[in-house]
Specification:
The protein has 191 residues and is mainly alpha-helical. It contains eight helices and no strands. Helix 6 runs parallel beside helix 8. It is elongated, with a radius of gyration of 25 Å.
Length: 191
């Protein structure tokens, strides 16, 4: 039965999944999940209204990425609140916040490990051949495409890409310098 529920939720949009889970939690008497999903539904609804207002389109809907962004912002708020509660010595509120965060994280894809990001970056760079700083956006897009399963932390991905592109550029400069030395050496021998 659990595997059927998971396969059903894979075919649903994020907002539909939250709505279905809210109904189940409400019927099941799970107060924490019900409360968190009620807040998420309200946040998603408000974001959709904001989108309709800014786009001046009464039929505008949130994309999956936009809905996921709303969830990530809420998760970040909970994390920050938990840190503040911990600093204030309010362990009861820390526990409550951690429980709420667990519910929210069910809907956010897992982040890719640093090793996976590093491997994906190396694989993409090997496939692209020579790249320089001008190719940074193209490389970033290819790596993000390769990592669609999970979501890398943007800072880690950016850091690895910048480093590897600079290393590649430095290697190319060193090769060109070596070729230049060989040509100069060859010319001096002929003169």
């Amino acid at each position: 039965e659990k595997s059927e529920e998971k396969s059903e939720s894979k075919n649903m949009s994020l907002m539909q999944s939250i709505e279905a889970d809210y109904q189940k939690a409400f019927r099941g008497g799970d107060k924490v999940t019900t409360e968190v999903l009620r807040v998420l539904k309200a946040a998603l609804y408000n974001a959709e209204i904001e989108k309709r207002t800014t786009k001046k389109d009464r039929e505008a809907k949130l994309t999956e990425e936009e809905a996921l962004g709303v969830l990530k912002r809420y998760a970040k708020q909970l994390e920050e609140a938990g840190e503040l509660f911990a600093k204030g010595g309010r362990q009861d509120l820390v526990s409550k916040t951690e429980g709420e965060l667990t519910v929210v994280r069910r809907y956010i894809p897992a982040q890719v490990s640093e090793t996976a990001v590093r491997d994906a970056v190396k694989k993409v760079l090997e496939g692209m051949g020579k790249v320089g700083p001008a190719d940074f956006g193209r490389v970033m897009g290819a790596v993000e495409g390769a990592l669609r399963r999970g979501e890398p932390r943007a800072g880690i991905l950016h850091q690895f890409l910048k480093l590897l592109v600079l290393v590649r550029q430095r290697e190319r400069v060193e090769v060109l310098a070596e070729q230049r030395r060989e040509i100069l050496h060859h010319l001096q021998l002929e003169i």
